[in-house]
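Reading a protein record of the kind used here takes only a little practice. The integers have meaning only within a learned vocabulary of local backbone shapes. With that in mind, consider the following protein and its fold in token form:
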Amino acid sequence: MLIRTGRRGLLQTAAIGGAGLLLPRAARAAGDPWDRATMIARTVRPPVFPARSFRITDFGARGDGTTLNTDAIARAIAACAAAGGGRVLVPAGDFVTGAVHLKSNVELHLVEGATLRFSTDPAHYPMVFTRWEGIELINYSPLIYAYKARNIAVTGKGTLDGQGSAQHWWSWKGPWGGTTEHGWREGLPNQRPARARLFQMAEDRVPVEKRVFGPGSYLRPPFIQPYLCENVLIEGVRIRNSPFWNVHPVLCRNVTLRGLDIFGHGPNNDGTDPESVDMMLIEDCTFDTGDDCIAVNSGRNEDGRRIGVPSQNILIRNCRMKEGHGGITVGSQISGGARWVFAERCRLDSPELSYAIRFKNNALRGGLLEHFYYRDLDVGQVSQAAIACDFNYEEGANGRFKPILRDIRIERLRATGAVRVLDSQGLPGAPVTDITLRDCSFDGVTQPSVIRHTERLALDNVRVNGAVVRSLS
């Protein structure tokens, strides 16, 4: 299978091309978009590993909660890869480590009672090629990282602890209005100067190898980031207190997230940010986060347009979203576009969950967003709107790049505590188009919907506070 990058980009094969998944002729003729979701579920398969096991304690690791085990874990991974692949086993214990770099054909497996506790010393995270808020750069390694690897996994019933807190990592954010104390005070260093410098470098098309950050820049690393990888499985583990985004696959194909328990209320603690991915299954996961639970991305502004690879063919099912800004979100780092995202049988409920379904973009990003199909969603409390489409995100209404959002179909969504049904705000000359709500009910609604620059909003058997409505305006 050929992997290539560039403007058209990612992981193109005879079956996967610019339009994404190629369906059988009968499925295409049937005209049911959920046939594509069925095909995604059948096509995405986790990697299979040889029946070999390499215990990290056999390579010198000690689970005493104090010994730094980075080198021992690296030796176990290297031995496993050299043998042709298998399982690197983390036994019960509290193992402190710096960055863990996976290799092809390696499964990192944490047994029940095992904890990988990641060091809070930035020096333990070497500089690597990565993406940060949708822009390529050289920065601190993610806590768990893989680059151009094939067949990799992180599995088990153990715990990954990023040790993000008011004492470590989180204060680098600077000013923040979140629900958790994050440790920053006026006069402390923060990410804002480096963030602005990185964004300007991207707009100026400074070569990536010259975008070197790291010490003194305060750009926090994500927790798990496979980059340009194929056949990725992350299953079962408890993920706690990431410095930044939790699970961030970039330019990957065939990715499975299953049975994850993700918790962290720190700044930008998104649950998962699939960025420019193709073919991904997210199922049976719990998200309790300090930002969006799931945020589908594809690059920010000029860098996203330069790389030009959309996120596509993503199926989300049987997940639980608790605290967060948005439950199922698309954007805002979305300049490469997104399409064919499906979600079904999810529970979204918390007084600290702002929106159940959220799209966020602006005229600085641009990008084509289309074909979003959601059904059988159980929404409890949300503090703002059940559904939001926002083209004014981060004050980007005056940019030169027209955002496009179209073809959203939501069926059998049941909300019991939505303050408002819909907040849809396109831009003059760039309306949100073609939203269909079918067989949906919204109770506890106390505020009217906000609908601006939105065209072809269709309601079919929609109830608000028990009454069938034909219009939300």
